[in-house]
Amino acid sequence: MPPKRNKDKLLQIYEALINEIDVGVHAIDHSGRTVIYNNKMMEIESMRKEDVIDKDFQDVFMFEDGQGSTLLYALNEQQEVKNRRQTYFNNKGKEITTINNTLPVYDGKESIGAIEIAKDVTVIERLIRRNMEINRNTRYTFDSIIGKSSSIQEVIENTKRATRTSSSVLIVGETGTGKELFAQSIHNGSNRASAPFISQNCAALPDNLIESLLFGTKKGAFTGATERPGLFEQAEGGTLLLDEINSLSPMLQAKLLRAIQEKSIRRIGDTVDRKIDVRIISTINEDPIEAIAQNRLRKDLYYRLSVVSLFIPPLRERKEDIIPLIDFFISKYNDMFQMKIKGISNEVLPVLSHYDWPGNIRELEHVIEGAINLMVDEEVIEVSHLPYNFRNKPQSPTSQDHATSNVHQLLPDNDKKLPLRNLKDFLLEAEEIYINKALEKHNDHLTNAAEELGLSRQSLHYRIKRMNK
Ligand SMILES: Nc1ncnc2c1ncn2[C@@H]1O[C@H](COP(=O)(O)OP(=O)(O)OP(=O)(O)O)[C@@H](O)[C@H]1O
Ligand SMILES: [Mg+2]
User: Fold this and answer.
1) 267-302: per-residue pLDDT in tens?
2) Could you read off the pLDDT of 439-466 as tens digits, one per residue?
3) Ligand nearest 360 Cα, by number?
4) Of 81, 94, 143, 318, which is the most exposed, with the fewest CB atoms less than 10 Å away?
5) How does pLDDT run across 230-264, given as a tens digit for each residue?
């Protein structure tokens, strides 16, 4: 009958429409069973249609305590709910936050079900929460330090030893190498962990402000001065991190030296000395000996500050850390942005390995974050997602050209009659020749050979073992 066929067609059109729109739609009938569950809703809730359709809605979803379902409310109370924020868990334990409009549906006067229209705000919620966490307190520990290179592992070992005492620590390292990370790890790993950790960048403010910040002021010491304890007093029992110590003026360096020697400070304008018990960790982003030679760092202060001295190597000198760091940052931003990036493409690794990383790990993190921001459906970071200066770079001659010439030497003569060898055997032999060449060049220094080959140390080690088998 034509009217019936028209109705069926119309239903099909409605169904197609419901599945195409960019808001989640979920409808239940009068008994609480799901009758409509569109594609967007599937995406928001990470559920399959067959797990929801025709099932009792309350069997499928669990709600946070005290938060009833708006769908059931609309059905039972026959009330509309507008712009309600809802946080709940699907049956795989995934937390979901949506803004919902929910309304009862009637057939005449009889209630026949309820519809929910949902906008997914999970990502926004996560971003806000994350930001709050960052602002509250970033509490790094040794577990937060990623890196398997022997050089970084050695620094970690030395740093761990420094947690047992209250000696001053000087951390030397270029920008972005993780000085703050190490300083916080020392504090959090020491018996001062429950007391404050306060950090102050000495280059960020003019001298007189830094002075009153560090030492505090007595009321009336100068116009507008209030009675205020300085950072030394606020860090009592804990740790004070002084960043970029080399940018303090000679006068303030002398004052700092006195405070460390006498273990007491005097607020500006005050006449009383106050005892302090604060561990000082300072950082410098240049060679301290150079800074002393150029009068940017007092020698006597340097000796006081560097009872323990840690040097964090720049990333370009420990390239085997690049892969674990990339993995770490990808999973960090996957969580933060609710993405599912799996890794980097084969073309990306040589590009990142050949780069010098003047901004060190911070720069690497920004490159990964930036790439993920450009991605929509892709699962793998490609060269096109990297910042402009990484793209269209000619490969360094060390990798491609030599590789090609070596492979040519291995190939059989151009005699077409000769049989070709099994590809796997051929590649293994090529690999052996190439690895031996790299080892010879680097006097069997595994780390350096691995770096030049673009391999991790472990991977090179494995291949050498395979060769000698
Ligand atoms: N080994 C590491 N593992 C994981 N993340 C790291 C590592 N090193 C540094 N980072 C990250 O890189 C960023 C920069 O680190 P940090 O702030 O500690 O560097 P910094 O040496 O203090 O830099 P600056 O000299 O510019 O102050 C931070 O986000 C930090 O979490
Ligand atoms: Mg820092």
Assistant:
1) 999 999 999 999 999 999 999 999 999 999 999 999
2) 888 888 888 898 889 887 778 887 887 7
3) 1
4) 143
5) 999 999 999 999 999 999 999 999 999 999 999 99
Q: How far apart are CA 208 and CA 458, in angstroms?
A: 52
Which domains are delineated in the chain? 2-126 (3.30.450.20), 140-313 (3.40.50.300), 316-390 (1.10.8.60), 400-468 (1.10.10.60)
State which ligand 1 atom lies nearest to the alpha carbon of 180. Answer: 18
Q: Is the pLDDT of residue 308 over 70?
A: yes
Rounded average pLDDT over 424-442: 85
> Around ion ligand 2, which residues have CB less than 5 A away?
179-180
Nearest CA to ligand 1 atom 26: 175
Q: Is the CB of 175 under 6 A from ligand 1?
A: yes
pLDDT at 59 over 90: no
Beta bridge partners, 52, equal none
Q: Which of 149, 159, 177, 181 to mutate to test the pocket of ligand 1 (most atoms within 8 A of CB)?
A: 181
Ligand 1 atom closest to Cα of residue 364: 12
Which residue, by CA, sits nearest to atom 7 of ligand 1? 178
Mean pLDDT of 37-51: 86
Residue type, 161: R
Answering whether pTM is above 0.70, one says no
Residue 243 Cα to ligand 2 midpoint, Å, equals 6
Distance 328 CA to ligand 1 centre (A): 13
Q: Residue of the nearest CA to atom 23 in ligand 1?
A: 176
How do 110-120 and 95-107 pair as beta strands? antiparallel
* pLDDT tens string 392-421: 654 444 444 444 444 555 565 555 666 677
Ligand 1 pocket test, pick from 134, 361, 363 with the greatest ligand atom count within 8 Å of Cβ, gives: 361
Per-residue model confidence as pLDDT tens digits over 127-184: 545 444 433 355 899 999 999 999 999 999 999 999 999 999 999 999 999 999 999 9
